[in-house]
Structures
1.
Amino acid sequence: MKTLKWLKPTMTRIRLWSYVKKNKIKPPVFSVERGDFENLTRINSRGYDEVLSYKIQKIRPFWFVKSSNTKKQEILNIACTGGEKPLQSTRLGQALRSYYYKCGGSYDVDFERGIRKIRPDWCIPERWYMLQRQLLSMARAGRRRPSTATKLGNAFLRFTTPPDLVKRERIRTYNPVFKCKIKKARPDWLKIVHWKDGKKIIRVV
């Protein structure tokens, strides 16, 4: 491992930092690395390292969110590993809503900030998320892009067209994360073909 000037050369610090760089999930309870983490990042701990704690918090903010129950930890694990957002019709989706929204009974400001930072694609209305899941499913299955004359096709344009190309009231719907997923699965979907004065015009959104 490359020597870092700010990292004090002790076995526990090097071991923890190495784990942080290689893993997105917080060390499991009772593991050696979890003990290192608790000892080096808790302010009231004898081994507290302010610099190391700050460095870890910058790249693994979710590790510092207080997990009061297993549901919150499940949600954090899904978010960190790139999983799909739990829908509100599920127990985890209901829990997510409770932790994320200020009107929720268990609102957690640190949890909300963490979600916004690493999973901005989760921070949209449920109905938009469902439409995006449907569109991604169609794209990955090799189906044709829905016509822009349909509700689904129009939604696709709103999600993938940059703000500078649409009217001001549509800016909120643009989702760069969704667009990247579509580009990876079906780049041809981003080519909009239309005719003008008898000429075929291809526009890439």
Note: DSSP finds nine helices and two strands in the chain.
2.
Amino acid sequence: MTETNGPGHAAILRAAGHHDAADLVDAINEVNATPAADEAEPRPTPEPPSVYAAAEAQRQTEGGSCSTPSGAIAPTFREPMTPRSKTMLAELAEREEQVAAARQKANEIKDQAKRASAEADRLRELVIEAYASDDQPQAEKLMRAKVKADGRNAEPWAERTAGAERAAARVQAETDTWRLGHWRELLNEVEPDAHAAAEAVTTKVAELEQARRHCCGACTGARPAG
């Protein structure tokens, strides 16, 4: 059975009661053109408000502070950490370490060159001795080792050494230039410690002088100075 609810169906009934055929046809066409309630486009379901939106609404309603709802994790906002500035003395120490490392590298290259030369000379003597003893197999074995040692000794050790020494000198010059450009800041950092050290030395000298006077007074039988 068809339901007769709604304005369209009421119009049909009125038209039928008055026996007006034209009005009846118009009413039926209007009902057919109107979509049924169950055929209308469904409305999207609104998303539930977030816990922070709910808290903000509560704050505005109550006039109080916005508190975090139960069970919610409040966002944490932290100030960005400012790295501690490195002291001038610490930077100077790092630069001096770089100078020492560059010099150490140059010294290591020199040592490698000396060892390569010594090994080539040692194998040369062993080869000569093997030939002198008419030990052909041993001489051939030593010759293979000597060829390898000669190749190692023939590497550009002089150029490597000169390059390492130049690099060390360059780092030293950069450190000296930096030290001269920041001598005032360095002095300001050293001055408090220098004053403290000077006061400690002065106090120690005074204590030693007092002890000396006391000792001299005791030795001469005089009353020690107060």
Note: The CA atoms of residues 91 and 97 lie 10 Å apart.
3.
Amino acid sequence: MGLLNKIYNGRVVLMTTVGLSFSGVYADSLLAPLVIADSNYETYFSFKVPAGRNTVGRLNSNTIHYTWIKKGTSLGALKKLNAPCSIVNNKGRVSANDMVFQNSRGIVATPAGLHNDQSQPNGYNASNYVGMVVISDLANTLPAESLITNEGGMSGFAYIVNITTGNIQDYKLLNNHRSLADGDFGKGFTSKKSVDLSWMGGGVSVAGYTGVSAKTDWFAVVTGFDMAQDGGLFSSLYDASVTFSQNTRTVNGVIDATQDSPQLANLGYGTKGVMNNDEGFTSGNISIKVNCMGSFDRAEIMDAQLLADTRFGGWVRLSISPQDGATGVSVHRATGALVYRADTFTTPYSQTPVVTIQPETSGHLLSGKNHPNRPF
């Protein structure tokens, strides 16, 4: 029985390799932070995988590992902020230096003119699916920090297709670059320590056009050190969490001494509150906890006065305090969060609403010289 010693932030975690079908430590992973597959949506992936840089064209057994982190079976599950996610693992087969085209159910999407694709990916098809997935290259036995040329070998994109309206949302799959183990998304820009939430007003005028309305929501994914663990050997739940607030950042309840307060003291405000679109400040308390992943809007983080004063737009600076999970054998260690902003536009010029999704900016709370989201 081999033991892999992983050292993170001064902590040593012992992991047994019994029951796993890989040899050595593999480090290259991709995170797809939002996957939807139901009667209205389908999610597609397009990614390249070195697969250990084995002989080109040879189909390797169990080359890629999927960790399906499921929040629920409908979009409404994202509103259950205190609920953990379940975990299902499976494996697929690809040849070296392969370009994989598939949907989240594991079906190969073969573009016109592309023949004899040897990819045999896997997916989640037990039910409808709303959640995220970590895809790892099992054949890559060189940790990303060991060789510059080995860093970030996997890359690609995801596409969420609304089957009914034809609208498509695409985003880049996130590589766990500069990490020593698969599923470790505790470093770099994927693990934010702070965030500036910003929003548009309920009714806006865009480029002189009237009748345009916009609603802002946020989507958060809790990042961790071990997001690709086998459910048969480790926990079957991912229950790491984060709390967004204007308190100084904490890690498992202990104050992070490297972080400044998010209460806008540098702007002359020594208290909690939000800014509106006209540089007006309203004091008030904002705090919300997200387990695993979830979405929320202004009404879920603000009282009536804050909502009224920022109805035409505004922003607030928040710290992100991680809390480790404690389910099953393996403790899921939280590091921060990945935060997206989603704006839904309704216009008289389109029969269906238009949704845009972009990452939110950092809150710039680190007191030292390094930016909190810099991938160092």
Note: Residues 1-184 form one domain.
4.
Amino acid sequence: MAKVGAVYPQVEPGAEALMERRLAVCPPRATVARALARGAEVLVTGPRAAVRRSELARAAGWGLGALAADEVAWRGLPVVGPRTAEITVRRLVTQGAPLVLVRAGRRVVGAVDGERIEVTPAGPSVADRLEAGEARAWLLRVAGKVGEGMGLPVFAVGGVVRDLLRDPPAGRRFADLDLVVEGDAIAFARRLAEEVGGHLTVHSGFGTASIEGALASRVGEPSGSPIGRVDAASSRRERYEAPGALPEVAPAPLAEDLRRRDFSVNAMAISLAPSVFGRLVDPLGGLRDLGARRLRVLHPLSFVEDPTRIFRAARYAARLRFSLDADSLRALRLAVKIAKYPALSGQRLFAELELLASEPEAQTAFKLLLRWKALRLWNIGYRSASGIARRLPAATRLLAWARERGIAVDAGELYLVALLADQRPEVASAALHRLAVRGEPFARLRAALAARPLAASLERESRLSRAADMARTQPMTALAAAWMLGGARARRRLEWFLSEGRAVRPLLAGEDVVALGVPRGPRVGDCLAALRRGRLDGALVTVAQEREFVKEYLSRKEA
């Protein structure tokens, strides 16, 4: 029985109270299948390297049992003693350590698994980073109040949180918002749309909804001014039946929803409930990685389960000027080594290409993909070539030149040509098929990849009319390809054609030449084309000169 007034020592549980003891040591080159057969929950593959049984089981389930277990293991893990304070261990986990090894003397006796302990601390408030009166802050507060009224916790997640926490904060203008609801996101979105206006689109099969064009009249914007798209999703876990497949989803708490994401810097959330508005939820060390300008995946098979994350890694690294950490680079190399992903659709790969091409730092992102040898995912025979390094900056310059003049050039197709122009024809063709390019886009890209003779002809041609005739029959992508593949003269000819030459028309119209005696039908078009050539070469300047030309044209035809 406790005595009144007595002082009792407070015993704090150490690391050994949290650790998993079902642990085995296996050689680094032991296969996944062999390591899995050991039956332990954690397999130690090196002094500071280990892998969970669940990760080995996933790899084996995907047919990767012959891989070395060390290829799917975490390395550089923190090591503590059995009596290390619990708070220290939890801090390591919240800083991003997936496993913490517990060593007694020279022997690892256990491991603390970050997925199995509660590590969602009450973080700092970042509400001060939302500008007072800003449309984004207003909408987030409304979302929190709507959620509270429905008894649903609501959080802002993903890019908006990451950009808000960057120093200095990025994206001060209202951007699209991702909201996660612990509960029925569709019901929440319906109620939110009643408050903020806009058009609601429900995706019942995915448990998500979007609001387009919410109104910002309450925050000083012009009445009816749209303030962006809001996406609401129920918090969930994901399971990948096969590498590259779309995941199967099931409801789950926020902590699991954050753990399923691509990178730690995108796995942070902000509480929107009025009582804790702006409170940061960062269970996976995203804020620390943000400060270190680091992209870190959340498990070793991240790029294998979803190879499109490789392209996202290049996009974020280029845009944010971040680098992948060592474990993430190893995870990426493993995914590239596997290379073939039958369950990954070409449409998803092409969508990532288009997103990359739309980035201001697109050429940097594509250079990263080349360095990582990631384009083997398009075709295993893809090889980098010296010409690509020149063509990517050239593509960027051409796009900037075209935008200044209001000329539409498809950025995705242009960069794709820059990346495929030096590949063997069979590799380039296979890559287009892998990207699910079909129909008219396929025809345009085939013409573009065959644009070297056009570039050479333009380089030699001195007459503007002949240069214009050569260019006029080609799709825009092929002209852009010829610009990249040609020399200085060919580029000048193409720039002239796109900015001036293709708009040149005769002063006389079709009815005018018919009135001068040209019979209706194909000969009208032939005559107008001849007039256009004369104007391009400077031989025809006035209406009178064009009339005389038509008379001579008729006399030649009659003769």
Note: The mean pLDDT is 91.
